Amino acid sequence: xxxxxxxxxxxCCIAPSITTPMPKMPQGKPAGMRCAHLMDNQLCExxxxxxxxxxxxxxQAADYVCGTDSQQALELITVLETSTL
Length: 85
Ligand code: SF4
Ligand code: SF4
Known about the structure:
This protein is mainly α and 85 residues long. The protein has helices at residues 54-58, 63-66, 70-83. The protein has one domain. Helix content is 27%, strand content 0%. The two termini are 23 Å apart. One iron/sulfur cluster is lined by residues 13, 18, 22, 35, 37-38, 44, 46, 52-53, 56.
């Protein structure tokens, strides 16, 4: 089921790997590393800009990914990422 993204969560900008080059991460982002574009307020500084990876723009918050808090989301995304390798 889809849901609204929890402001201040940021888990999907930490747990997954991203292969798209980004301005501050030209090699992409390894799994489990905080994205260099995730600001202190847990919002994306590339939001709305063409440099934002498509995978980020396409990502849709959903119960099975986001859980009930950011810690649970980190765990769920890590499991999903590992199981799809
Ligand atoms: S894991 Fe889900 S709730 Fe958390 S920031 Fe990403 S989309 Fe939003
Ligand atoms: S580019 Fe933005 S949305 Fe994508 S992982 Fe980094 S901070 Fe998150």
